[in-house]
């Protein structure tokens, strides 16, 4: 507690001092165009007027990054940690401020995308070609979004059509025989704009032992925006994703025969009406995700205590993996084992929201109905229905103070009712400097895996679980000038009934509401335009995440994470460098430092515009692991050419 008082005093003192100095100088102007977000309150507002921390990844940021999927766009954001199981085919989930991946709500155009089976979303399956921008909300948001927004929200906003027809073609080739192709057609007229895109990605993967880290992925995206009247639009988007990949597993317990297929179908229909003092939005959606997994291995028939998984190659030779080395064996009686799982999950939802603009108040309210279903050979058949109401008021008390008050009521057919309040305040010292305060409650419901994992000699689900709950607080300040942007935040989140898988009296692992956690930290985010050509960005996160029940740190929550970005652009030439340091990890996980670089050049040939770029990842060729047992790729490259006509 003492360290918090000291740090808080220093922050507030610096805030007041800077505010006084800036008020006297009055020399620099603030940004004329502040970042506009919709995620914090479900309506458009300036990010600096929200009482919670957030960040926006725009088109310029996307073009500067070495990114093959949504996880790559998010990995260097303040307070964000990507749980990377290595390689183009490896699962990539997100943690915000020390949260579990199940506690971060991921939206696409306002639609929830987290799997109700696992509670997570694999960001490696989200293609970046049709991303317009990403809004990241750090901290609980159950007051607006209900369950599973306990750690934060990521809202991915897709590209729309254009008035002028244009075609974009992108081709790329890189290390590990990685190939990328995309074709996008945008256009429209007086009433209808459209966007149609097809993308494909193939790679052999970087894992050699075992060597089944390959990926073959296809995406189809369409979006139509039809103007019904002067004030209203109807937007229809269709998304299809098909992904086949190898799943090699940990180097200490590999699965060289394992393959997984994910097929995702999505329909999103949105009606929006914007009048002078009222905005109304109705969102209806349907998502179907089919996942199939197959693995074949052998066990020692004569020795049940032998826990090695054995395999046969094409020549019939028997072997197993000892760490990262293949060991051949003889004279073992083997029993063939097949692990096959098929999961079909469906989600249907209807979301209504309305915003009323008054002189000093902005009142928003709405309702949500959402149904989740699963049909699985492992989890069985189950369905849940959730209904909710929310209301929030943003009150401009005077020219300097904005107060936010809101709450949401959820009625879940299995877990009953839950109320999630939130309050906050923004205080403007002067045109450059603002202070924000916020506090709120949030919760997360157990997943289908938590509840209905199939019983075996080792694991079993627990249908008697209760939701996790949390109380969170935050204080921070934002300093803006024409050339600079500096944000500092302090946060704390206390979690009750944290779900943890642990052995029972019979030795079987089950999930229990046994743990409590205390997560606190400091975030610093700074961006500066050094001149007309060079921009520098730096962010740092200090995180202290403790399982207070067990009296130890939560795994995979490093004490320190820092990122440095340098971007240079002059006429047709651009270059970008990103450095990331992760330090103070749990257990035997070593710290790591990774450097990435990108160079691009614009050309014009026969009146056609081309962009050629070279991306090099892990420039220093470091050996490291983000998740234990999953080695990251060595130095690798990607060459890309883009043309638009």
From TrEMBL:
Its main location: membrane. GO terms for cellular component: cell outer membrane. Residues 250-260 have a biased composition (Polar residues). It comes from the Bacteria. It is a multi-pass membrane protein. One of its GO terms (molecular function) is siderophore uptake transmembrane transporter activity. InterPro entries: Beta-barrel_TonB, Beta-barrel_TonB_sf, Plug_dom, Plug_dom_sf, TonB-dep_rcpt-like. It is found in: Cell outer membrane. Pfam families: Plug (PF07715), TonB_dep_Rec_b-barrel (PF00593). SUPFAM superfamilies: Porins. GO terms for biological process: siderophore transmembrane transport. Residues 256-619 form the TonB-dependent receptor-like beta-barrel domain. Residues 47-153 form the TonB-dependent receptor plug domain. Keywords: Cell outer membrane, Membrane, Receptor, Signal, TonB box, Transmembrane, Transmembrane beta strand, Transport. The keyword Transport applies. Residues 243-263 are annotated as: Disordered. Gene3D superfamilies: TonB-dependent receptor, beta-barrel domain, TonB-dependent receptor, plug domain. Belongs to the TonB-dependent receptor family. This is Outer membrane receptor for ferrienterochelin and colicins.
């Amino acid at each position: 507690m003492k360290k918090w008082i000291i740090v808080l005093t220093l922050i507030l003192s610096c805030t007041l001092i800077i505010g006084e100095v800036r008020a006297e100088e009055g020399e620099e102007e603030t940004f004329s165009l502040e970042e506009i977000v919709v995620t914090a309150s479900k309506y458009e507002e300036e990010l600096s007027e929200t009482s919670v921390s957030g960040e926006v990844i725009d088109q310029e940021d996307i073009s500067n990054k070495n990114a093959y999927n949504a996880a790559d766009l998010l990995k260097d954001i303040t307070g964000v940690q990507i749980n990377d199981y290595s390689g183009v085919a490896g699962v990539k989930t997100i943690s915000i401020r020390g949260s579990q991946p199940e506690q971060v709500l991921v939206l696409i155009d306002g639609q929830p995308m987290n799997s109700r089976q696992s509670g997570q979303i694999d960001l490696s399956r989200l293609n970046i070609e049709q991303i317009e921008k990403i809004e990241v909300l750090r901290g609980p948001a159950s007051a607006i979004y209900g369950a599973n927004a306990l750690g934060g929200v990521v809202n991915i906003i897709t590209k729309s059509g254009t008035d002028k027809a244009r075609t974009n073609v992108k081709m790329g080739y890189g290390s590990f025989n990685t190939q990328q192709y995309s074709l996008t057609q945008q256009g429209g007229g007086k009433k209808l704009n459209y966007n149609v895109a097809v993308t494909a990605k193939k790679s052999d993967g970087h894992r050699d032992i075992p060597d089944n880290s390959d990926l073959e992925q296809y995406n189809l995206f369409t979006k139509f925006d039809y103007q019904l009247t002067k004030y209203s639009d109807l937007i229809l988007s269709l998304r299809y994703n098909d992904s086949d990949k190898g799943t090699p597993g940990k180097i200490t317990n590999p699965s060289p025969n394992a393959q997984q297929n994910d097929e995702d179908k999505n329909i999103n229909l949105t009606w929006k009406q914007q009048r002078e003092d009222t905005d109304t939005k109705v969102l209806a959606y349907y998502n179907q995700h089919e996942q199939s997994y197959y693995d074949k291995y052998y066990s020692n028939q004569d020795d049940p205590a032998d826990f090695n998984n054995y395999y046969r190659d094409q020549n019939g030779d028997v072997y197993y993996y000892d760490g990262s080395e293949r060991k051949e064996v003889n004279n073992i009686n083997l029993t063939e084992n097949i692990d096959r799982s098929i999961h079909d999950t469906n989600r249907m939802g209807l979301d209504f929201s309305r915003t009323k603009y008054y002189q000093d108040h902005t009142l928003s309210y709405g309702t949500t109905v959402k149904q989740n279903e699963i049909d699985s050979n492992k989890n069985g058949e189950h369905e849940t229905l959730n209904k909710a109401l929310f209301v929030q008021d943003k009150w401009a008390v005077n020219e300097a103070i904005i107060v936010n008050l809101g709450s949401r009521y959820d009625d879940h057919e299995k877990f009953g009712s839950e109320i999630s309040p939130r309050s906050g305040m923004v205080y403007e010292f002067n045109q450059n400097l603002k202070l924000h305060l916020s506090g709120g409650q949030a919760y997360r419901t157990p997943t289908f895996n938590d509840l209905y994992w199939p019983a075996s000699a080792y694991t079993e689900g627990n249908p008697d679980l209760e939701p996790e709950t949390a109380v969170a607080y935050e204080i921070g300040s934002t300093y803006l000038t024409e050339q600079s942007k500096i944000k500092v935040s302090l946060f704390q989140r206390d979690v009750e009934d944290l779900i943890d898988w642990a052995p029972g009296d019979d030795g079987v692992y089950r999930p229990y509401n046994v743990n409590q956690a205390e997560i606190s930290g400091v975030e610093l985010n700074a961006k500066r335009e050094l001149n007309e050509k060079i921009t520098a960005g730096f962010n740092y996160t200090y995180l202290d995440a403790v399982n207070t029940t067990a009296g130890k740190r939560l795994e995979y929550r490093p004490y320190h994470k820092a990122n440095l970005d340098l971007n240079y652009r002059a006429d047709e030439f651009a270059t970008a460098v990103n450095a990331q340091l992760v330090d103070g990890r749990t257990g035997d996980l070593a710290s790591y430092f990774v450097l990435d670089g990108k160079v691009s050049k614009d050309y014009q040939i026969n009146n056609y515009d081309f962009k050629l770029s070279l991306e090099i990842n892990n420039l220093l060729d470091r050996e490291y692991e983000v998740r234990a047992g999953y080695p990251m790729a060595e130095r690798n490259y990607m060459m890309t050419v883009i043309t638009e006509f």
